[in-house]
Design a protein that fits this description.
Layout lengths: L2 H9 L3 E2 L1 H18 L5 E5 L5 E5 L2 E4 L3 E7 L13 E9 L6 E5 L5 E2 L15 H14 L8 E8 L2 H5 L4 H4 L1 E2 L10 E2 L5 H16 L4 E5 L2 H10 L8 E3 L4 H10 L4 E6 L1 H9 L13 H10 L4 H9 L3 H8 L5 H19 L5 E7 L5 E4 L1
Amino acid sequence: MTPADKQHRQAGRLGYSTGACAAAASLAAVHGLIHGTLPKQVYCQLPNAQRVAFSIAHGEQNAHSACATVIKDAGDDPDCTHGAAINACVQRLADQPGEITLQGGEGIGIVTLPGLGLSVGDPAINPIPQRNIKDNVRQAAQTLLPHHGLAITLSVTNGAQLAQKTLNPRLGILGGLSILGTTGLVRPYSTAAFRLTVIKSIAVAHAQGLDTVVLSTGGRTEKCAMRTWAHLPPPAFVQMGDFVGAAFKTLIRHQIPHIILSAMVGKLTKIAQGHAITHAHHAPLDTRLVAQIAQECGVDPALCQTIAQAKTARFAAEQLHPLGLAEIFHQTLAHKARQAIYHHYPGNYTLNILVCDFNGQPITHI
């Protein structure tokens, strides 16, 4: 176990995302459909390739379908979805061998606005959880899929009510919760314990005499940075999550001379706004700034106005990509973020910024 792993374990108990719970429930339901009995526990592979045991709360099956429920455990940073019942029902598709379809049922939100990486009208089941659910199901149903397909319907008990306590309505996700999770794990980003982990991780890098620390806002941006700076040792990489201020103040205090920041468009916009904490509940996104940057890149005024009225920075990124303006847009945004960081956290250090896309691939580097 690395020092960073020990610190994460000490800082707070990890939880599991709605996507991981949905995958586990789907896996259990498929087992029930094939074998006629629902397991009390399943081992589910998360998007980060880790295998985790999930308890199955309840379920039912018959000759044609099976349903299973997993109760979400959010770890030491519980939000309103902690304790939510994530349900999966699976049916055979007799005329579609090898096919696995995924749809949202009661308590799953519907996407009504662009900019979320999903089509308007789709259930709010993000792409990585979709792949993870299907991968687990495909592995469990190897004997069935050559002859039948599978239709999976996800639902969340009281999901519509729970969603009112989230940002979903503001983002245009209506009627329920989202099925989320890029790694399957939920780290206590918003707790003082995770903030302390960031500070300790930087202290470890300093104690090892490193002159470069790479900050990232999450798992995909960290992996992107690790591929880009593969020569750096593991302690050089610190997931700061939402704690921009704590990370930079600690780096300056330890006199780390070279800092690299790896981020995506949404977090980077909030950093450019000057937010010390980028969590959605602390730092509203200013899409007017996004529109201003787009205007500086030569974007048509009508599209700039649409960007200013959007709910996410991702919307702008998606609109500008087919216009061939994505790279200059992200470069301009990165320059503004760097100016904001130097302004709010003055010190004797150099700062480079790596901008990643939503698949964790590099877009630009300044």
